[in-house]
Amino acid sequence: MKFKLINWLREKLRKRRRIHREKDKPEDSQVEDDVTNLPRLPSTRPNVLTPSPSTESLALANSPLFGKLPRELRYDILLRAFGGGLLHMDLSFVHPVAPIEPGRVLFSHTGMNTNDRLDVNWDTTVPKSWQWWSSVCHRVMPNYEKTWSFIRMSHPEIPRPGDDRCRYGDAHFCQSWPGTYPSKCKIGIMGWLLSCRQAYVEGIDVLYRTNTMHMSGQTLILNLPQLLPPQRLSAITSLEIVCPLTLHGAEVGAIPEVNLLKDYLSVFASCLPSLTRLYLALKAKGSNARPVDMQSVFKPLDEFVLKTSLKEFTVSHSHTVFTPLYNAVQNEIAAQHRHQYKTIPEIWRNADGSYILPICGPNTEPFYKQVETSWPKPPRVGYRTVGADVAGDGYWLVEGEVDNYTPCRFSTVYL
């Protein structure tokens, strides 16, 4: 009896010490400690959701919806309802959001419970756990891709992918999107997916294949093969990714830490066979306006683009990293020519290390036409471009978050 009591007291003291240590740890450390508790896929699926051909035929025969509407028409309806957009996919180790007080009016994204500073009101009385979260992205305006080059130049205050805060209820353009608030902020596909198996099969394919998925959580990205079924990963065609880029080194020059970047690229190359569009936001940390040695970053990017089948690839850099790079490319190209052009702050980098700069159109055109480029598609060499003679396998380099510095607009360069 005596030894049982001693062991019981030791166990209680051990638990109390562990609780105090956890409270003193930074949040990132707690996340690492709980990675083993991720909501990973089961080794075997309890139910088969994808119907066999015979089951599919039976569903089509007995359903007014699936029996009378052609597949192409059903696809168009699903595409308009749930596809062709920019969606958030997030997995975070957090407290649940606190319940909203009765009668309180909210204007935050998805109607999330936030304070006046748009910080989430977490319910700290409930322990943290891994929680899935998703929404339509309202950081951008409707049809943003059609005018994004113009927006980047004329509205530098609009958040870039690296500064997206939809996850925390802080989105800039909820009011610009059609629909009823706050339901328009949500994807709203769950009811359709749960209605029947055939609806699930057609809806889930549109969801993953036609939307761009925004992901910023390291745990989610590095563990994608353990969190999403292979058939869902193989359906993903477009991603918007935020990757932190920690800078080390003396005041003379900063050297980026690229191990995390390499891990991200390895996951994309091995697990996403249908990926054709990638926007990679490299968010610099610790730059302090120091020169940055970008060659260590370009090497894995060049290798990645050569072994994948991307049709559109964009890499954004924080302002303090992009501006010196942009100026260096300008000077390199200017040394080869003797004409004066007004260049646009976008850089096409070929995998062989050569560069192409887009240039502004004539002043007789409207401003949005002057700054129109082929982005996100590769440049058309010879049409408002200077630099390399060929646009081979490569990617766009653009300016990301502003870093509290004056953004780079246009520069006149003698070429």
TrEMBL record:
Region (Disordered) location: 19-55
Classification via InterPro entries: DUF7730
Domain DUF7730 residues, every copy: 184-242
Highest taxon of the lineage: Eukaryota
Bias kind Polar residues: ranges: 44-55
Pfam families noted in UniProt: DUF7730
Protein name: DUF7730 domain-containing protein
Origin species: Trichoderma lentiforme
Lineage: Eukaryota, Fungi, Dikarya, Ascomycota, Pezizomycotina
